[in-house]
Specification:
The complex is a heterodimer of chains A (286) and B (599). Chain A is mainly alpha-helical. Chain A contains 11 helices and no strands. Classes of the chains: A mainly alpha (286), B alpha+beta (599). The interface between A and B is medium-sized, with 27 and 25 residues.
């Protein structure tokens, strides 16, 4: 399979999963309502979505200058991590074609799914607080992650042959995809783990509104986290750090949510009216 | 010198060293005077031995990682703590060749067909005029003298000198040669043929390819690489790996080219020798008429003098980039260079044989009109200041005079070269050596595609008809993928590159040759050749193993002749007892926890 083929499959499979997942979580009634109100809700949340996209773009740019800085600092922590945790990852690598197929599918398809899924669910809500907290926690996750990527050089267990690289051996084309998104010297922390964990935490916090959400996010996040190690890409240390990162990011996002009223005052009404249709009536939207 | 004199000298040297150590220890004992201070000497100054092994990551070189892990396992049996530190090639070579910031490393040395390459590797830093530190920090005055001597000698005399050098160096073991690589590549015979005429991914290989009968209108040769360095840096001064060097050679021509054991006139139409080897030969080189650079500027003898001055000037002030080691070897042969007329230059050499002097003619010529702008000033060249700017430049819009010119570079993705119509190979009345390559290469475009792994190279490119050849040597584990493909052929070339374990001879632990020798006996070269390389490597004891100057003392007979593996040969396994005995014999002690102690 080639890189374009895998990309095409991604673009077909993930939206289908999202549709199914969202429908199961919110119910068809809310789903219809969500689709109908999508334009206005999207408009209101656009500054936050804008920040998320800007962060992703910054990530791309950082991948150009980041490695130079990493090299100058020369803080290579690979050996340190290995001396700390030893061969843990290789011990969980029971080789079986079904496991390899499942976790490879998870690492790519289910991961992209779980990143977009909470946005899709929360857009069916009139109250945009969950969307705001989700966006900010993603941004914080990324910014801290990128900073750590730049500061440290960290190769994964497969790069010192402490683990086999199942996915890259069986599905070589996946490496073309992953190498476009990240470098093999940035395994610490595991953003796969931190972002998946963030989604789990948020689905727990919104369990009153959508109690079924957690039944989807927990197994998927758990699979993603195991996949990062089963495929030999990350150390346990990276996963643990990722989980901490998730908790910190959500905390920061909640802090921002509590304080945002204060800062909202600084934004001129004219600017706010771009995304806030109620602003002319001087009404707060939530 | 006859062999037994060498043996005696060697024994004498070792004896002196041993005596030195004992006298020092004895001196300490006698001066301490009382038992208390003896105890405190033993306790306070001893530490558990620990070291770091650096090597490329498995994505770049899994064999190097395996060798490092094999060594780590056995070092740990010997009570030494080991940390593995994978580093990208750039970082690794910077640490090793420039910063000397390492304990041990495992990597491939590009080697050389002319044994004079050993001079850059082992020539000590004090005597070396240009100040380039040999990466291992090895220094031995006797070896230095012999290295200088072999430069001037020829024939049997030179062979004897080179053998002596090998005996001294192998015994001292500043590095441990593991083996000479056989490179493995996949080719598709659909569009092009002639793959067996030369070793693949070399200048003459690309020039000797022909189109197949069914693809007479093929215009593009596509080469797949699983290493992005040729797209990162096209600076001839910093091509420290063979992969990049070949690409540079396609773009930058030189006065002469090496092929089949001798150096032939290439950009030079002819040359004449003057003087004596003992006093320093000189050569008068005549450029071919009307040669031009890729940007149509004329090539003159000013470019020759400029180039040789730049290469001579490569000093270690260039901390940011890694100077190409072989060019330093060649430029150290040149004493001075002068333009005689527009197309003639005279190069004066230091005392050395003509065979060695000619190596200097293979340096790529640089266009003065472009490179002098990069230097501080004309005075800058010759003082080191100007030159450091020249190596910091990645030159991704190179202007050379080679048969191929750069069309476009997309870092980490691809490098496109197109044929240079103004090259002299397109002329009608060629004679001599160059006549064989008239009109070559047969393709108009050469594209190097970078992919993340050899698996992708074979599965997604070669098998899908999107590549004619893999430029980088395939990882051992991916070689079977080629066998499974019907339209692809596996070609294995023996090379001069050798894997080795390098010691930082300037660091405390490794200044002691007995320690180095003990460590080397923890390496099972047979096990490495069979299990790590699946036979695609020829284990060796000497760095000149693949030349005709290899000392017969080191013919490979199933084990390293000087430092055989101290465990069970071929299994890579050694018992703790055997491992520790190696270091005990070398004079080291262990604490109660079984950790090796060093002062």
């Amino acid at each position: 399979m080639t890189y374009t083929e895998i990309l095409t499959r991604l673009v077909i499979v993930v939206p289908l999963l999202l549709l199914l997942g969202t429908a199961l979580t919110v119910g068809f009634g809310n789903l219809k309502d969500g689709v109908y109100n999508f334009p206005s809700r999207m408009r209101r949340i656009s500054p936050y979505i804008g920040f998320v996209i800007a962060t992703l773009l910054f990530n791309k740019v950082a991948r150009d200058f980041g490695p130079e800085i990493s090299r100058v600092l020369d803080w290579n922590i690979t050996g340190l991590i290995y001396n700390l945790e030893g061969s843990f990852v290789s011990h969980i690598q029971f080789e079986h074609s079904v496991l390899i197929a499942y976790f490879s599918f998870t690492y790519i398809y289910l991961y992209v799914f779980i990143l977009i899924f909470p946005f899709s669910v929360y857009l069916t809500l009139e109250d945009q607080k969950p969307l705001r907290i989700l966006s900010v926690s993603f941004v914080v996750n990324y910014l801290i992650g990128i900073t750590l990527y730049i500061l440290f050089i960290s190769y994964g267990p497969r790069n010192i042959l402490e683990a086999q690289e199942f996915m890259y051996n069986f599905y070589p084309e996946t490496q073309t995809l992953t190498s476009k998104v990240n470098s093999n010297t940035n395994v610490f922390p595991s953003l796969h783990s931190s972002l998946s964990m963030t989604v789990v935490v948020l689905s727990w916090k919104t369990r009153n509104r959508y109690p079924r959400m957690i039944y989807l996010t927990v197994p998927v996040a758990f699979s993603v986290i195991i996949a990062t190690m089963y495929l030999g890409i990350h150390w346990l240390t990276d996963v643990v750090a990722g989980i901490f990162l998730a908790l910190i990011s959500v905390r920061v996002a909640i802090l921002w949510e509590e304080r945002r009223g204060k800062y909202a005052g600084y934004v001129p009404e004219r600017i706010k009216s771009i995304w806030d249709p109620d602003i002319k009536q001087n009404k707060n939207t939530d | 010198m006859s062999r037994d004199i060498v043996d005696r000298l060697t024994t004498r040297r070792n004896l002196l060293r041993d005596l030195g150590m004992t006298t020092l220890a004895g001196g300490l004992l006698s001066s301490s005077g009382c038992l208390d201070s003896l105890d405190s000497l033993a306790e306070d100054s001893s530490q558990e031995a620990s070291l770091t092994i650096k090597m490329p990551p498995a994505d770049s070189d899994p064999a190097a990682v395996r060798i490092a892990k094999h060594l780590k396992e056995n070092l740990e049996k010997a009570g030494i703590k080991v940390t593995l530190m994978p580093e990208s090639y750039g970082s690794l070579f910077e640490d090793v060749l420039i910063e000397n910031n390492y304990d041990l490393y495992v990597a491939e040395h590009p080697g050389g067909i002319e044994p004079d390459f050993a001079r850059t590797l082992f020539y000590s830093s004090f005597i070396e005029e240009m100040g380039w530190q040999n990466p291992l920090g090895y220094s031995d005055i006797e070896v230095d003298e012999l290295l200088e001597k072999q430069m001037e000698e020829t024939g049997y005399k030179r062979k004897r000198t080179l053998e002596e050098i090998q005996h001294l160096v192998v015994q001292d073991n500043p590095l441990s040669v593991i083996g000479f690589t056989d490179e493995r590549r996949a080719v598709s015979e659909e569009k092009f043929t002639g793959w067996l005429k030369n070793k693949l991914h070399t200048f003459f290989s690309y020039l000797s390819l022909e189109k197949t009968k069914s693809a007479q209108d093929a215009e593009t040769l596509e080469v797949v690489l699983s290493d992005n360095s040729p797209t990162q840096d096209l600076n001839p001064l910093t091509a420290y790996r063979n992969l990049n060097r070949t690409v540079i050679e396609l773009i930058y021509d030189s006065l002469g080219k090496w092929k089949d054991g001798s150096i032939h006139p290439w950009m030079a139409e002819s040359w004449e020798w003057h003087g004596k080897a003992k006093e320093g030969l000189s050569i008068e080189v005549n450029l071919r008429s009307r040669l031009t650079w890729h940007d149509a500027e004329a090539i003159t003898s000013d470019d020759i003098t400029f180039t040789y001055r730049v290469f001579k000037d490569m000093t270690p002030e260039t901390r940011k980039s890694i100077p190409a080691p072989n060019f330093r070897q060649f430029s150290s042969l040149v004493d001075s260079v002068e333009a005689i007329d527009m197309t003639t230059a005279r190069i004066d050499f230091v005392p050395c044989s003509s065979k060695i002097a000619k190596l200097a003619l293979t340096i790529p010529l640089l266009p003065k009109h472009i490179w002098e702008k990069k230097a501080v000033s004309e005075e800058g060249i010759g003082s080191g200041i100007g030159s450091s700017k020249l190596t910091d430049w990645d030159n991704t819009d190179p202007v050379g005079s080679g048969p191929l010119m750069a069309d476009s570079v997309s870092k980490n993705t691809e490098l496109r070269l197109k044929s240079f119509k103004g090259h002299f190979l397109n002329r009608q009345n060629l004679n001599g050596f160059v006549n064989r390559f008239g009109g070559k290469p047969v393709f108009d475009e050469l594209i190097f595609n970078v992919v993340p792994s050899d698996a992708v190279a074979v599965e997604d490119f070669m098998k899908e008809g999107r590549g004619d050849m893999t430029g980088t040597s395939l990882e051992v584990k991916d070689v079977p993928r080629v066998a499974k493909a019907e339209d692809l052929r596996l070609i294995v070339d023996s090379t001069q590159s050798f894997y080795h374990l390098g010691f930082n001879n300037k660091r405390k632990l490794f200044t002691n040759p007995r320690f180095r020798r003990a460590v080397s006996q923890l390496l099972d070269k047979n096990y490495i050749a069979e299990n790590i390389f699946n036979g695609y490597i020829q284990p060796a004891t000497t760095f000149l193993s693949r030349t005709r100057f290899a000392s017969p003392k080191y013919d490979w007979e199933g084990r390293d002749s000087e430092l055989p593996f101290a465990g069970e040969n071929g299994t890579g396994e050694i018992s703790e007892k055997e491992a520790k005995q190696l270091f005990r014999d070398a004079g080291y002690k262990y604490n109660d926890k079984g950790e090796l102690l060093v002062r």
